User: What shape does this take?
Amino acid sequence: MAERRTIRTDYLARVEGEGAMSVRLAGEQVEEVELRIFEPPRFFEAFLRGRSFLEAPDITARICGICPVAYQISAVNALESLCGAEIPEPIRLLRRLLYCGEWIESHALHVYMLHAPDFLGFESAIELARAAPAAVERGLALKRTGNDVMVLVGGREIHPINVRVGGFYRAPSRHELRTLVEPLERAREAALETVRWTAGFEFPERTVDCDLVALARPGDYAIEGGRIRSTGGLDLAPSEYDEHFEELHVERSNALQSQIRGGGTYLCGPLARYSLGSELLAPAAREAAAEAGLGPTCRDPFRSIVVRSVELVHACDEALRLIDAYEEPDAPAVPVEPIAGTGYGVSEAPRGLLYHRYRIDGEGTILEAKIVPPTSQNQLAIEDDLRDVVARNVQLDDDALRGLCEQTIRNYDPCISCATHFLALEVERR
Amino acid sequence: MSRRTVAIGIGNRLRGDDAAGIEVAERLRGTAPAGLEVVSCDAEPSRLMEAWSGADSVVLVDTVTSGAAAGTLHRFDAGEEPVPARAFRSSTHAIGISETIELARALGRLPRRVRVYGVEGAEFATGAGLTPAVEAAVGRVVDAILADLEEEP
Assistant: This one.
């Protein structure tokens, strides 16, 4: 009779939001691994019905306090493409600048406050701050610079208010944007230091084998839009998403889990973006990646902290490039008239692909909305990785195994608030 | 020379009772007592630390939801010990003010005196004003901060 064990953690720290996870072991056999997710975005989909299509960016921004820009941009992408709006280049690039601010803010928070303590043996960022105050100050300054970009371009940092269907309510002046140059130059230096810092951590060797999915656009490390590509060879317009990806309802929880139709588990986020497009990173980011020992692809979830750091360099560099090239648009927005039909929009949230679909009538009333956040898409991949990590480490005692499970989840920077409501970690050995 | 005190009102003007901290800051600004600097901001950690940088004393005012009756006033002295994190979890995403206080303490960036007022909120609907109980509590916080200021050496 195999020994059966139960391990429980009631609250998983250092992830965005709250949720539940359980692992059940019988001897050396992993019986079940489950990341439990209750999904607020589904309620948002209902809130959206009957509202004007012009309200979608402001309503969906409320889904997440960390990645509101992602929600706004995927929403406007969907509605503008449906209504045939031609968005002028300066507005599109201004949106990317805003998005760079969100990447900097979100990645700095995850790398320094949530993830680094795992590698350095600390329970929290507060312990890390006592041991390595200079590192934490560097992380806070980086995060702050990302917030400052969001305030200037987005109107405010949490739930920005400046993005609208057709463009922005107000376009900043060149002069205003210049005030970000000096902080962003400092941030780029701090990001390079972040890559060197995280590259020095110790990493257990891990590889995930599933398909990687990220946006791509010729010449760009895709952020605010693009086509959907995968390592398995998919190359899709946003309108083809539903033909190739499906969400499954899982009986044991309220979660919807995404998979590729007929292809199974996939992963989106930094590892996918990097592996599908590392050659398109800014030169400074590419050099930093090479110095950190990253090859052209990276399938190691533990090393995602290095990839996020490389993306920090890219986002700072790209923001500086965009500010340097910025031309004030003739008008902050172009008029957009509603057209009855279905619109599809995607963008790269800090933690991965964010898909929106809206059906509207000729008056612009939203009849149906679908939102697939990256954490839902990554849920199966996280569970698969967790199952394998547990199977390879059953010899560990409960505390050590629990710690490794938590770190494995944090490797994916799950935004559980986007996808879930409550997360407690439960490891059961029977 | 008066010791420098910074009062920081935290909140969102557009979300009902979440505006309590901002409202306190505005009323304090109206009274403009000597030696008091008033700041309204969000709870972004580095912005908070910057706002109280160099101050001897800081007073933070935020809306809380602990299950108590609307308008209930919670007061914590965080100069020596942490404030309960749960009360101030305005968002599950961000670093809350209790974590920011502990980070600042670890980094040696916490003023000597740290008082935190939590105003129990009830309504957070978009566009709603303060509920009457919270409105009354805002007045009590302003009075308490001004009284404290008188007593400080």
Summary: Chain A touches chain B at residues 16-18, 64-66, 109, 113, 125-127, 129-130, 133, 136-137, 140-141, 143-144, 147, 156-158, 415, 417 (CB under 8 Å).
